[in-house]
What does this fold into?
Amino acid sequence: MHLKTVHAWKNLPREERGASVALGNFDGVHRGHQQVIAQAAKAALAGKTPLGVISFDPHPRRLFRPTEPAFKLMTHAQQARALGGLGVDLFYLLPFDFEMASFGDREFVEKVLVEGLGVKHVAAGFDISFGRGRTGSADLMKAYGHEYGFTVSIAEPVASRDGEKFSSTGVRDALRAGHPEQAARILGRPFAIEGVVRRGQQLGRQLGFPTANVEVEDYVVPKLGVYATRTRLPDGREVPGVANLGNNPTTGEVETRLETWLFDFDEDLYGQVIETDLIAFLRPELKFDSIDLLVQQVLKDEQAARAIVAPGF
It folds into this structure.
């Protein structure tokens, strides 16, 4: 069964009910999240049910703290691909609106999980909170499971061998500090920015290094600067490159965006969706006194990036 995304919890057809589910926001689908989903998968196998993941759109923080800076680690399309890769059948991307936000913990379990989704098992992290005022806890979920007839498993915190906790906050902190390798260790894969290639000033093309420009939009903003990258094209090809993440202080301030020079590549990508992994941070974004100095630095950045993502070329 291929992953199916479900955007509702009311009046669902039979084939979209009765799953063993993992409950959480799962932004990043990092290695800690993967442990929770693995517990739901174990229950799905034992109970011969579909494997489901419940998340929310928008993220509850967007509703309660709308002025907070962007913080997302992935788009919903990236999230769905990551979950599909883990064998998830049903991705419940539930609308987090004022009705959902008004439910107390018991109401959430009764209306959404039991009456709406008909869950057979709920897997959650040790720090799960649910319901208005975040009053629901792991222990309460176990009690509700006993009362309403579904089983519950709670995943303990997961950390690396050197004690590094696997959390979405840890990923964001690592990215903001300019440590994409650390973020990748927590995620289990590189952090990647996906978006539509927009037409820019085309200055790079004139100078000999054409860039594919993608707006950062709702993503957490990593440390501004230059990165060694790897970009996936719509046809699945992966192309090494070097990218500037920033506001272009030398040639005129713009909204924060990722401008990627794909090595040894000369095809039109305008209007296409690409996904670029941030592999290594090379240097902070700089303002140059002249275009000549900018070009000299870009060529140095190219050599540094090639050494990391395209050695021998």
The mean pLDDT is 92.
